[in-house]
Batch of 3 targets.
Target 1
Amino acid sequence: MGRRQGLALLLLFTFGSQFKPSEPFLVDYLVQRKGLTNQQVYGSIFPIYVYARLPCTALVGVAAELPGCGNTIVLALGAAASLLTSLLTRFAASLVAQQASQVFIALAFSSRYALFAVVFKLTMPAEQQTTVHNVRVAELLSNCLSALLGELLRDGQVPLPTVFSFDVVSQALTLLFAGLLHVHGTASSNSPSAIPRSRSMERPALLEHWQQQQLQQQQQQQQQQQHARHCLQLAPTWRRGDDVREPGLSAAQANRRRSIHTLACRWLVLSKPTLTDMLFSFRIRSVAWWTVWALAMSTSHGIALTYWQALLREKNITRNHNGYLLATMYFLSAALTAVSGWWTFLRSNHSVLIIGSLLVAGGMLCMLALASTELTFYFWLLLFQCCFEVLTAVATFQVGRAVTEAFGGDREPCGSTSSFDQQLSAHEGTRTTGAGAWSGLPQGRARLTLVLSLTGILSGAAGIISQAVMGTWIHLLSGRFWAVGLGLQALAGVMLCVGIIELCFFSQTIRDARSRGDAGRTADGGSAEPATLRPSHAWNNAAA
């Protein structure tokens, strides 16, 4: 199976994972069919998801980095958790079972952070923007079609248990697609047989170089394992009979403290490469900017989707068409996301996109607070949703491309280097002066799932803090929308100032570097461009 088949499986998995026609009727089903009360649903079941989301997100980020696990296994485990949630919701009747289903659905949603890491592993650099946007389109279309199907089934007087049976079937198919995706990745990842014949015939030297890199990567991993074992042997350990303890501590307390200290030292030794790669990833300028954007926009989007229906009631707009609005929002967002996937302007220019989107989104939220009719309210909410979804796809693509290019391609834990196609693209973009010369890349691995999951954790924490602050100080819903909108616009002003400072600083740095390079140019016509300005450097987009 080739890349096209892998991408088809990935799109099917994405569509199936979001296809849940029963989602709008969950409360009605739990109350009418399971015999639970509204207080139990809102006070004892739904909060479990809120509490479990952040730990599950952290677990997904760690699991993706474990040897022998990887991103496709994380997706398969998430699909299994989603299927288990559907089974518990459909057939279990106890309160404890429904509470457990919230933990599993939190794990399922958190596993989606590994989705785009698989996207960047399966696609060529020239196809990554379109593929990322297509995956987002599959998510949005699935939400749109499942909402429409649920409404049609409900209007057709179909019993709620039958509607929830559709969830079981869709999640079972999703688990099947996840298993096939893992088999496809295991069979074809980094395999010479997967190299296109035309490419291998045209680039025999690159094919040999790729094979040498496979061997060097394996040797490097063996050296890292030996170094880790050596560091573990050097980690501080104590025997139970040692007489070195702080005054006032018993022997049992001292031994317990020493054991904890020893485990902490060993954990730091083993996690040092991961932490180093994480810090390097967030130091990339575009990644840092999009992380700030995600913290602000994800929090704002969560607040808007949580309170928009209540805001309608606060404005005394009792007649509404919320079901059709949700379907329309998902459909138009999918259409705009698909069209924007071909726009080359969105491949870079992250500063302009971030500052502009914060200003526009803040203005839309303020207009929502001012809207007095149903039509104008729906219009501004629709624009806000489309802005968020399109920019989310853009952010995912730019962050994923920046991280994978900074490390020379994505690599799974305990896996070899990236595919021959990706090595060929890296060769065409990062080759330096001189025969066979290659620009230096950091000795690490692109940990995209961990980067995205950590961003999700920070966004979730920011959302919890924002909800707590507004719940304490701002009681009117329109006031909350005003506060969030003005806050986004204030952040846009801060980011504009930061961008101007960076532009002045990096312009001077580039001029100084080029002047030093001109002074040191060699007589044989060698390149005078300093290594810090080569395309493989993590800050290569600073001047842009």
Note: The radius of gyration is 26 Å.
Target 2
Amino acid sequence: MSILSDIELRKLNSLNNQGGFWYITKQNLVFRDLCFMSKILDDWNDRPEENYESFFNNHKILPEYGELGASTAHRATKNCEYLGLIRPSERYSAQNLTPFYFALKDLCNGDFNKLSSYPNIIDKQLERIFIDSSLNSLYTSQIQICPFMFLFKILLLIGDITNSYKITIQEFKLFVATAQTWKDYFAVVESILRYRSDADYRNASDANLSKVSDVRYNILAQNHSQLEVTSAEIAIKEGSEKNIRRKVAEYELNDALQSAEDIFSADLVLSPLTQTENSSYAHLLTALRTKPFVLLAGISGTGKSRIVRELAKACWKNEEDEFGKNCPRNFCMVQVKPNWHDSSELMGYVSRIGEKPVFVAGDFLKFVARAWQEPEKPYFLCLDEMNLAPVEQYFAEYLSVIESRKLNADGTITTDPILKKEAEEWYHTLICSLTGKEELRVQFLNNGIAIPQNLFVIGTVNMDETTFSFSRKVLDRAMTIEMNEVDLHGGLDGGALSEFGYIGDVLKCAAVEGKDVYEDNKELCDKVIEYLEKINAELESTPFKIAYRTRNEFLVYAVSRGEENLANSLDEMTSMKILSRIEGDADKIGNLLDRLETVIKQSLTPGNEELTLFDESTGAAGQAEKSISLEKLKEMKTRMAGGYVSFWS
């Protein structure tokens, strides 16, 4: 072990004091502070009557600019370029502020103290930094590298070899921060290991420490929530190793070439997986990826149907023709009528009035055909007041076909036909009226009309004396989410961004059954199954015992969220798929609720009354929050005092 490390040493010996390592200026490197500096530049807006330095100094101590402090120099604004907040330029100008900055500003409503609620954004923006020496005259070496992803790679390799996922600051400055391309990681790892074991090599390398003393990417790394950075070392935080490993694997598998331009884009802030992982919509998005049939339950007026509309609107980019429309073509609202007792209103029916039979297509069937014409665009059907009529009767075909979903080898998901092909003239006429695309016509004529992979059905549910309750047949096939919390201050700030941002490319289902995810995620799946076995032990001899369908959905949901969020997944799914099925009088339920509460507390909240939910971005234990399932159990137990209990409010 010497050839590569000898080359590294020769590279160190030939270094100039600058231009041969990852460079960043000697100024403030706190992400939050740099955002406020960008805001100062934004509000200065190139006014001719006052130069930027004067405006900066007059505003930097104000609360609305983060109280940056009297010692902060306006020159620190230069570091905003490295984080993609400002485009590189020789002069300060508000014209150089980037789409990333403006999207971040809208998200926080101008208060960048709120960034603490979005650690994902900070982490992922740091991970998008790309050093391209051809764009910076300060570099004397040819460097093209993503510094944070490279650092992750080194920490993982060193940890796998030594069982300690850390390096010293000297090792970082000498070997990591002087790397020029991704392929240098072999040489860097060999050099670090030799540096630790070979005293002569260490002394020869240390002779170059003065040349790299201005390396400050280790200071910038203090912003990353999954790194522990001190004056002596850089380490992966405990509990974050698997998440870091996933990031590196995804980076290495990504075919797209990274560019220094990527960091200026707003897409990171607009992504729902960045914006909503820590919000109340995380489980809704995951539920949709798990099963394209969701029930939104809650009191009247909480915005259930509006959420479905917003989901559809969030699937369009600003350059697309449907962007901003209140009723885009991928959205269909159907008001359920109390007199529906078959599927003729939704699917349609054959009318034999006239000379020839004619199929009169319903809104649902027409919408299914429209969704087939744009397979890459998510389509949303909202069944408003879904339980005003018996779902099992008017939606019978869908409830049957949705269970035939199958993941194919090419990654597509197909179903049995919801309308089977017929050797009748009316069927041919119907197909010609539903689509003008010849390829689709042939498909429908040969195979019937199936449910497209991009169709999501969301039913809104109110429970009162005018509505029907759900059978377990419906509940077993749907994901149930409650929306009873009301924030009367919400929706009044007029922010430019919706709750979701852009979600057009993240809702595609990647699995259907447990077998689709088990082989690659055995450890995680076994934990889920172990939990379900404990739950099922308490459900034994009751009609609420779960079987393979629920197990599959638990597994797909948990894998979709990742192992770092396992506690969240189990908690949310317990409410969605287990508690939602429980109803009956005191004789039927007995002490079942108490027993389930004990299992949940022992499995998810050992020693606590609250659930210590995992942080969405770090994979480590976060602050204690109220468990969804425990809160629901508390509500159901209170209702039990009236002699009858149900999940539904």
Note: The mean pLDDT is 86.
Target 3
Amino acid sequence: MQVTTFLSLLCAKKPKTKHEKSKFIGRAYSKLNEDTFRVDINEYNWDCVMNCHDSNEAWEIFRETFQTILFKHAPQKVYNTRADRQPWVCTQFLESANERDELQKRAAKTQSPLDSLRAKIVQNRTVSLIRNLKSMFFQNSIQEAGSDSAKLWKTLKRILRNSTKKDQITQIGESTDPVEIVNSINSFFANIGSELSERIAPSTLELNFDSIPNIPFLELELTTPEEVSKLLMSISDAKATGDDETPVRFLKMCIDTVSILLCYVINLSITTGVVPARWKTAVVTPLYKEGDRCSASNYLPISVLPVALKVMERIVHNQIYAHLRKYSLLSEAQFGFRKYHSTSTCILKLLNNIYLNMDKGMMTGVVFLDLKKAFDTVDHTILIKN
């Protein structure tokens, strides 16, 4: 059973020279007039979507039409990239950097040992200054965070991000060709679950849920535009776009119309049992973990799925979770993916059991298991059956 299709995107570009400006083609979203865009979306005749009886066709028509209107209001534009000034850069540093540049130009022109010495002295002073400014900035940021763990972690991540060199993937295995590298990583991510599953011996345990009394079969209920609207509005505007290439903030701009159309597609998917193929396509970015950079197994796949799927996932999740709680089907030992449960409550329960045993003069033995690719190796046949 195919659950997820991986889509990898790779952009190749030639190295920049020191003074060369990078350019890229984007869309002028900042120039978009919200009112006229909203009018065009609301006044469009969406019967082409509402009359569809296939979830794939309905979603593709909606996506293409919505993007056509959006792109009309936000045409393509060529942008020049420029590095944002770091918060620790001050006038003192800029003056020192300008002096350094002037002295280096003079030394290169005159070839004078004295000018070279002066340029080197100012260069060392500039490097020392920027190091001190960065150190002071991060120290102040940590102090200002205080007991706010979110701000503290944000600062720490920024420190680590600045101290870690981000290299492009230049080789996987013996290949250095960009297309072959992408295909190799994509193939590894897509097949690792099934390959590991084949090594696992078939389970002889028979699970018979029919013996559990008074538990009706779960039938997913249809959703409403109000529920879709609430879930869509709860998604951050900063959420990355998936294969649909539609920023969530523009869906929110026309929430009244979009919620009705998206509700129809989701309900169509529930009644027919078919999830739109594009919703199952992820844009995957390989994130280096540790070890040999030439091995695909040392990269973690970061997948970005379409926003519409996130809404549907939450609708289905809420119904399944409510059913499991209503009939007490969740084990008390499960702490992951449950409300009011976390790794912290798991550790507290473990420690409490250990302390209770200590009070009784008993010893506690603990076995810790780390399952590799636990989610990828789930047997979907057993999952669906049970």
Note: Confidence is low (pLDDT under 50) at residues 1-19.
